[in-house]
User: Fold this.
Amino acid sequence: MGVKTVLKAIGAAMLILLLIDVVAVFWAMDQVEKKMAHKFQFPPLNISEKMKTADRETGRRIVMIRNRCPECHGEDLGGKTFMKGAALGTFSGGNITPYELGKKSDEDVARAVYYGIRPDGTPLIFMPSVEYHNLALEDVAAVVAYLRGVPAVARPNGEIRIALAGKLFSVAGKAPMIFSAEMISPSAVPVVKPPEVISVAFGKYLVVSSCAGCHGERLEGGTIEGGDPSWPPASNLRTEKLGAWREEDFIKAMRTGLTPEMKITREPMLGLIEYGKQMNDMELRAMWSYLSTL
Ligand code: HEC
Ligand code: HEC
Assistant:
């Protein structure tokens, strides 16, 4: 075989590989378009019943402290670009003050939080409802009641753009947080809310809806899917790892970022300390009573 023939063969092979790539890219883009247009059929929440007794102060603690909505929606809840030009894309939490939500019904807002969908049933992008689906409906109503009462902030919504890598990851099932609604089962029975007291049950309720997203369903830690590549793996929060900790060690770690091993937790956990500081003793002690049973 002459050199020319070999080069031609290599050229042809490369062309074929390139074509396969192009086809894969177009296929992924088309799949993501389909995901974005998919209309989820979730059961109605009939939230207006629960709105009658919704407690705004509980709503405030969920929004501003326990479930950290400002991380993505901004300190004033007027919206924020929380990921810009990352491999997965650019993502902004919308304006969730009455400026935007005033146009929506309580049921619409509750469905956005609980199911991660828009009023027409299509999925919200990068809204972590798979965690908030673990809130009881009375707490979802408390969130809606709180959001109705915050000052309106006149700020238009920021950019949302899924980058090519984000699309490929999403289609491969490697970036589940992009379409949280896909991970929610329409037949799941709503969680019953345990009383807000120091108990394993209330601790579990808090941990499942606010820590499991990073630390994993079994709280064993590991790589945070779709997280920033510079983040360390999430720690194991089970007694295998935290068995030697006492309750006060946990509370101190959550409020200062300093562990009993004299380590300072790194990002993204470090950023959560701002919220940990605002958690009250009851919340932290309840979480610890649950974690120390694992
Ligand atoms: C990881 C980031 C993130 C966190 C944390 C987060 N959100 Fe969102 N949320 C988003 C993004 C992004 C959107 C916009 C999605 C879109 O338009 O496709 C959104 C949309 C919404 C919407 C729909 C807005 C509209 O205009 O209809 C509501 C309501 C909402 N979020 C409430 C909340 C509440 C309440 C919390 C806390 C319990 C919260 N979010 C926490 C990212 C987040
Ligand atoms: C955004 C992702 C994220 C969320 C949400 C999160 N964590 Fe973490 N957490 C981490 C990472 C990553 C580490 C490891 C940090 C390090 O190695 O420096 C960590 C470390 C910790 C540690 C230190 C453990 C050790 O090994 O010393 C504790 C305790 C902890 N998290 C508790 C919690 C609790 C309780 C919640 C819920 C209220 C929570 N975390 C929510 C990502 C997260």
The chain has a mean pLDDT of 93. The two ends are 67 Å apart (CA to CA). Residues 63, 67-69, 71-73, 82, 91-94, 96, 100, 104, 109, 112-113, 124-128, 132, 143, 160 surround heme C (ligand 1) (CB under 6 Å). The CA atoms of residues 12 and 18 lie 10 Å apart.
